[in-house]
TrEMBL record:
Keywords noted in UniProt: Methyltransferase, S-adenosyl-L-methionine, Transferase
PROSITE patterns reported for this sequence: SAM_OMT_II
InterPro entries: COMT-like, COMT_C, SAM-dependent_MTases_sf, WH-like_DNA-bd_sf, WH_DNA-bd_sf
Name of the protein described by the UniProt record: O-methyltransferase C-terminal domain-containing protein
Amino acid sequence: MPATRTAELASRIAENIERIDAYTSLKDTPPVSFDASASDFPLYDQEIDAARQVVLDATDELHALMLGPVGMLTSPSHNFLISLQAICRFGLANAFPDGKDEATFDEIASISGLGESYVRRILRHAMTYRIFCEPRKGLVAHTSASKHLATDLPTRQWIGMIAEEMWPAAAGVGGAPYSTESESGLAYLIHKQTVEAMVKWPGSEEPTHSGFNLAHNTSETVFAALSRSPMRAERYAAAMSWFSTGPGLEMTHILEALRWESLVDGVVVDVGGSYGSICVTLARNHPSLKFIVQDRPEVIVAGRQQLPQELDDRVTFLEHDFFDDQPVRGADVYILRWILHDWSDQYAIKILRALIPALKEGAKVLINEIILPEPGSSTPYHERKLRSFDMAMLEFHNGKERDMDDWRQLFISADPNYHILGVTQPAGSRLGFIEVGWRTAET
């Protein structure tokens, strides 16, 4: 009798766990656990990370099979964000008496200012996700996840951004009106959201016709709305900075994208390049190149302050709105990293067309974005993570992630003189690179 699918998955899980355990033993590191002292999963090398991905894929499929169709459709996973949001909003991970590793629900309530009943219900729900534990009845202690929340501010800011900005746009649960004076309270209003935006503005490509706009009752883009609140703007910037340095998003992948050494004395422009991390990485590895980072005025100020002094003669900053004509003419490469996914095709085309007046024959545009896989070409677990980004862009900006067919059509629509030269997906990178050339109309 042939092995069942569940048996195949169990065997695959066991085989790869054995490989991971052998490697951690060889490296003399503690095994992964939920203990408060445990660190994040140790990513040693590509082989071990590949084994980890096999385990994640297989356990995801096995879990779905064990749930069955009804269980999959009715899983109450949306409730998880309620407890996680409350933990971050009220600082529950940090609401332990000084010097103590354990606390009662009442002590946490007293320090956080949230009622004891709320604290008990929220934390016991979070404990089912292994965030906090209850070693003895009525006594709360940290797990590795809750300890990370207590000690890592960027993680808390990321969760706060998801819970306070994106979740209302997706699920239709909006917060009380934002104020720079008060961000407390659990009083939420039911607002319209992403699906309602589809009904209200069918087929719209406007960035202000999103679930975010309905949930937060604003007619501004996300960036404009957040800029009106220093707290929200700071949280968003910190969250994105933290996220963009996570596994698979390392700046070093840019080194594999082009034959940079062939651009002798070349000029590289990073359009919407934030604080200049990409250009700093390239500048340290290619001393003959010069770099220009473009972004909004307030971002440019911060970028200049953060630039390493030894690079200030080769990395410069320039205020620029990427919907305006590109002011740096004749550069060799123009980089767009994680820019176009914020925008619908209508606006992405405008960004690409704004480059054209500056492009010389043979200039390259380097796109560094998610490239959605062909349906079914990857495991559902891996594909779900990428397509979840697509849903996030939809709810937040009315933007989109794109597969290669979408990318090809986008460049054709922007201008037929754009032509794709190559596509690469570096090992371990979540983002792909699309190398696009430019040929003038005369050639």
